[in-house]
Design a protein that fits this description.
Elements: E1 6-9, E2 20-23, H1 27-34, H2 56-75, H3 85-98, H4 101-128, H5 136-143, H6 154-161, H7 164-189, H8 193-201, H9 206-215, H10 219-243, H11 250-259, H12 263-291
Antiparallel strand pairs: 1-2
Helix pairs in contact: 3-12, 4-7, 4-10, 5-7, 6-7, 7-10, 8-9, 10-11, 10-12, 11-12
Length: 302
Amino acid sequence: MNTESTVMASDTAPANGSPTLVPATHSSAALKVGDRTPKPSEGLLSLFLPNRHVAFPLLILVGLVEAALFLALWVLSPYDVLPTPLEVLSALGRLWMTQGLGQELATSFGLNLQALLWSSLISLGLAYLTVLPVFRPLVTAISKGRFLSLAGFTFIFTLMVGGGRPLQVTLLTFAITVFYVTSMASVIAAIPRSEFEHARTLRMSEGRIVWEVVILGTADKAFEVLRQNAAMGWMMLSLIEGIVRSGGGIGAMLLAESKHFALAEVFAIQLVILIVGMVQDYSIEWLRRLCCPYSVLTLERK
């Protein structure tokens, strides 16, 4: 006598309307039957429907069309003061060949990476220390530094580290850290209680819980916070290199060209910053997917 129980799968019933019966002991077969058949692609119509998965080549095509529209609007702009795309490319060549744009870009890129490294170490360390109640007021106080202007700290940091490149690194590290630590502390505070309780049912020590749940469990979100704050670092770069011009950098060059109203050169420098920032952004995202592949397994849009 066969006593195996069965599972009824009605979501994917055959064409005749009868349900599919799967033995409960064959769980893999039940998983296959339970999967819903994906909806057929609507082609271009899917671009205008909510919650649709669109093929990557189609997204590339849409991006190219939107970029062409942007260039057309730029060329046909009624503002004569704006440089044309060809003027921007010509200015880019002059800046790169005769005014040391490449060298200044390398200086700024190194500054950004150095500040990002220091801010990551400081912010992650402080955020993970919020598991100890004694550090929570300190982290909260540091996060309020988001409302303060960098100009008010220039003299204090100059007394501490001197001028030039060390001062640039210190200012940029501070500017990134106050936002980075705020985001990471919020990520850790948002960990559900169920994850801690699940770890305790596995008889983990509190130190092991911190490692497994707090540190490893939020690693993918730490990469995402890093990606956002790295972009913020490029946005603040021109301000900091403008305050401390003795250290050089592409931000100081940008402010100098803007002072002389050389808009073609300004647009060219902005274009270079945009390209380098996008490469850095995609690199961090690639690193996140490489180190934390599980972070995209359950996403609707991967």
